[in-house]
Amino acid sequence: MSDQLSSSTPVPATIPATGLVPTDQDLSCRVPVLFLFVAGAIWLIVASFFGFLASLKFHSPAIMSESAWATYGRIYPVSMNSLLYGFGIQAALAATLWIFCRLGQTRLVGGGIAILGGILLNIGLTIGVIAVLLGYNTGYQWLEFPRGAAILFFFGYGMIGISALLTFHNRLERELYPSQWFLVGGLFWFAWIYSSANLLLNVFQLRGVVQATTNWWYMNNLLWIYLALVGLAVIFYLLPKLLRRPLYSRNLAQFAFWTLIFFGSWMGIHHGAPVPAWLPGVSTVMTIFLVLPLAAIAMMLYSTAGKSLASFRIEPALKFAGFAAVAFLVAYTLKIFGALRPVNEITHFTYFTTAQNHLVIYAFFSMALFSAIYYIIPHLAGREWPSRRMVNVHFILAALGVLLYAVPLLIGGVVQGLALNNAQVPFMHSVSASVMFFRLATVGETLIVIGHLILLMNIARILFQCCRECCFPAETAAETTSQTAEVRP
Amino acid sequence: MNYGPLIFLGVFFALVCSWWALVAGPQNQLGNLQQTNAVGTADVYPLARAGQAQQGAEVYRANGCFYCHSQQVRQSGAAFDVFVTTLDLDEGEDPAQKRQAVIETILRIRRGLSPAQAAEIVDHAPRPVLESVDLNRAETAMSRLNGAGARSDLVLVPIGADIERGWGLRRSVAYDYIFDSPVMLGSQRLGPDLANMGIRVVDANWRLLHLYNPKIFVKNSTMPPYPFLFETRRIVNQPSPDALQLPEEFAPPPGYEVVPTDDAHALVAYLVSLRSVTPLFEAPIAAPPAPPAPPADGSPADQGEAAAPPNNQ
Questions:
Q1: How far apart are CA A33 and CA A376, in angstroms?
Q2: Scanning every residue of chain B, which has its alpha carbon at the shortest distance from the alpha carbon of A137?
């Protein structure tokens, strides 16, 4: 396995000055991967913009209240959908395509289909977002897009998925690395849950409270399984690579993979829901079984990276991956505690759940994907990041922002929940008790937004330089050699 | 694990298991629920919403009200009240003697009660002997009362913070939602639960004003105002009877009036239609045995002994 890792980065012998020369595989997937990463980064800005606006509304609800499209109940779902589908799914697909090419030692198959899929997917997203702003929200959380937009989005996803699977099938290196299991699993997982939930909620509509259980099933599988599969795949690929150490234990990875998808997919139904008691019961038991993959992954991460923690300061991409790995452990530990009945009765219906979701989406998944962006794009562009400092600034802003967002909301959620569960405390006290925590969270969100702008700027700069080099090679040659003093292996 | 198809099959199997349990399972059990009978009456429950309320549900959905308001009442358990209904007199028995026996039993069941208060419970039956106790204690008390020659009745009182807040009388169950589509249970309580909004606020004008600007009633409300559901227009001949009666600081400039649109009326109709207080088999709310003496509005946390028996008839 370590052979495979080292062999997947051929060291260019001829041009040591730039250090990064796109391999044949990189060139084959360059356009679709860059397209998806850039589109993802733009959707991230859209998500941040609406998220920030939504968060401002808590401080002064009257802002822009004259416009129907800007009401909280419309911009909040737009921000979540842009984040999950615009950024999350696109960045995940980009990383999948690149890792399949790399680990399979093969060129991308069906790059044209992938680009077409990417365009379709973005059209679907745009229509969906506009529809939600106009009030055509389906009423199911995280499945707000109306049928037409969801179909376009899903077909786009499917086309990119087909290209990814063909590439996977055509691999020359037949032995599979753990990241590939997770990514193949993730590709199918999202396709199945998204199509199944949409069919049952928007086409062959289920009746009554079954709609709610199906929606919870979908949300759980998207957040805690799909994002985990992709995020872990990226971490398992990048962490050993950047630390130059082999991934600890393929067997543990196998164990974690199967236990995660078998137990984790049953979570998501909370206590006190208007459903028969066996549902939350089964769900809670399965959540407790999540200890198994969690322990396995903790052991893998510790044995892979634990002893070389000092080197987390060196590579910016490594910092992101390391942060994501720790955030994974924290988020899933909290998930297990949060599912226990006495805790769940306090934290359900509060900011605690919001904080948990954002721990997974931002602190774990997005950080892992940022790491992938900062690692992969230089390989595609054939050059280092123009400003390493700005990458570090993004890391600091993102890390601080996530902490400032999640920690106050976790505490605020408990405070709010305790107030809600004590009938002697008037309802408005439960709101005002959490306002201070929410202010801190808004500060955190501001930092995150600035971080996202810096990410987009970083990507724009490296691509601009890359294009300039392609068009005017002579002019830029001198600059490039002087800028990239450090040589990457 | 070097074969793609193996991973495919494994992942497929895992997902099918969870789909079977959490999607097909509830569908088999609850997917075909039909209207049911309320407990104790011949009423059919639930009833489909009227047209305007149904349109209001669309306004509720389109504006994402469910991101901040839940529609599910949680119940942490149930407590029981024990009532004495009558004396169980067989032929030839002496009522006075029986009454004395029951009073003594009541005094033994509930210490700290004066004999006069116990006598009042018997004489003005039905009155609660014990309030908000667990089932075990209630059943023991009942068998002792029955042994002493009184007829007694057990009343179930749902408890929980939501119910104490007045957000509902019982927990929400699957029957409450069979006519909703989409079912908007909500996942956050940044605003209060709305499962029983229809019985909590009866004043339609309050609701309209609250939608127009929540700060009219709640100073530091975080709820967004919905002015786009209203139309501010010039008064042409005489003010519309439908216009909002706004307090001065929120009123439009002179010569103008604020009139609710159809959407605002529909949304209010929907909010009025939100009520789930019918007692059901799986979510009983037992009414106190006879017309007089509903159980006092005291806190259920308090075991009942300390509170004096209600005598405010």
A1: 9
A2: B62
Q: Pick from B58, B43, B21: which is nearest to B269 by CA?
A: B58
Q: By CB neighbour count within 10 A (0-12 exposed, 13-18 middle, 19+ buried), where does B13 fall?
A: exposed
Q: Which of A213, A255, A285 to mutate to test the interface with B (most CBs of B within 10 A)?
A: A213
pTM exceeds cut of 0.80: yes
Gyration radius of chain A's alpha carbons:
22
Got the DSSP string for B141-207?
A: HHHHHHHHTEEEEEEEEEESHHHHTTS-SS---GGGGTT-SS----SB-SS---TTHHHH---HHHH
Residues 146-205 of B with CB under 8 A from A: 161, 164-165, 171-174, 176-178, 180-190, 192
Q: Report the candidate in B144, B81, B127, B99 with the shortest Cα–Cα distance to residue B286.
A: B81
How many CB atoms are located within 10 Å of the residue A331 CB? 25
Residue with tokens 């590439």, as numbered in its chain? A167
> Could B19 and A269 be called an inter-chain contact, meaning their C-beta atoms sit closer than 8 Å?
no
Which residues fall within 8 angstroms of residue A350, CB to CB, at 6 or more apart?
A412, A413, A414, A416, A417, A420, A434, B188, B189
Over the stretch A43-102, which tens digit does the pLDDT of each residue have?
999 999 999 999 898 888 888 888 999 999 999 999 999 999 999 999 999 999 999 999
Residue pointed to by tokens 């892979």: A304
In DSSP notation, A308-357 reads GGGGGGT-HHHHHHHHHHHHHHHHHHHHHHHHSHHHHHHHTBSHHHHHHH
Distance from CA of B300 to the nearest CA of A (A): 11
At a CB cut-off of 8 Å and minimum separation 6, what does A259 contact?
A289, A290, A292, A293, A296
Residue A14 CB partners (closer than 8 Å, separation 6+): none
What CA–CA distance (Å, rounded) separates A26 from A22?
A: 5
Q: Tell me the C-alpha distance between A205 and A198, whole Å.
A: 9
Instruction: Report CB contact under 8 Å: B62, A189.
Output: no
Task: Quick: pLDDT tens for A13-54.
Answer: 333 334 578 888 888 899 999 999 999 999 999 999 999 999
C-alpha distance from B171 to closest chain A C-alpha (Å): 8
Asked if residue A400 lies in contact with residue A444, where contact means CB atoms within 8 angstroms, the answer is yes
Residue A458 CA to residue A394 CA, distance in Å, equals 9
* B77 interfacial to chain A (CB closer than 8 Å): no
User: Residue B233 — φ and ψ, nearest 5°?
Assistant: -135, 160
The two tokens of residue A57 are 């509304």
- Structure-token match 């129907």, residue found: A68
Residue reference for tokens 């080292």: A6
Q: Which residues does residue B154 pair with via DSSP β-bridges, in sequence order? A: B82
Q: For residues B25 and B46, what is the distance between their CA atoms, to the nearest angstrom?
A: 23
Interface with chain B: mutation pick from A207, A251, A409, highest number of B CBs within 10 Å: A207
B-chain residues within 8 Å CB-CB of A67? 228
